[in-house]
Design a protein that fits this description.
Elements lengths: L2 E3 L7 H7 L1 E3 L2 H7 L2 E4 L13 H6 L5 E4 L8 H4 L10 E4 L17 E3 L8 H21 L6
Parallel strand pairs: 1-2, 3-4, 4-5, 5-6
């Protein structure tokens, strides 16, 4: 499988060679890629990174997989609204307004999964223990008696 990527800062040549990844400018990547996987933080410059203009540059058979943050993708453009892409496949583990699903995303070539990467029993148990420890710590710090 050929791997191409884009980023604000290009990886060193040695890293590209080791990973067998080729750098592309965003426009070239969009026109070339069959699968586009998003892994960006939510920043002002990444909000609606994928909108009607961006979707129009993608191959008609491409799939967009958003594992970053929901607002990175303009869901109206992804959902086949006027000017949007009804043909573009989509996979998402996060949506802009969870748990609401934009109606245009309810179609056969879209796979939506709940944002549950942390849902293992071990992780959820640890999360519950940390929350309980934080409550006890707060109560101690505020002078309440704990039992």
């Amino acid at each position: 499988m050929k791997v191409v990527y884009t980023d604000a800062v290009r990886a060193p040549e040695g890293v590209e060679k080791e990973l067998k990844a080729e750098f592309r400018e965003m426009n070239a990547l969009l026109g070339e890629s069959d699968f586009i996987s998003l892994h960006v933080p939510l920043l002002p410059e990444t909000r609606r990174l994928f909108d009607a203009r961006t979707f129009a540059q993608m191959k008609p058979t491409a799939f967009l997989i958003n594992t970053s943050r929901g607002p990175v993708v303009d869901e109206a453009s992804a959902g086949g609204s006027a000017g949007g892409r009804q043909d573009c496949g989509r996979g998402a583990g996060c949506l802009r307004e969870q748990p609401l699903i934009y109606p245009g995303l309810k179609r056969a070539n879209v796979v939506l999964a709940p944002h549950i990467a942390s849902a293992s029993l071990e992780t959820r148990t640890k999360m519950a223990c940390i929350a309980a420890e934080n409550v006890v710590s707060h109560l101690k710090d505020s002078g309440h008696r704990t039992y």
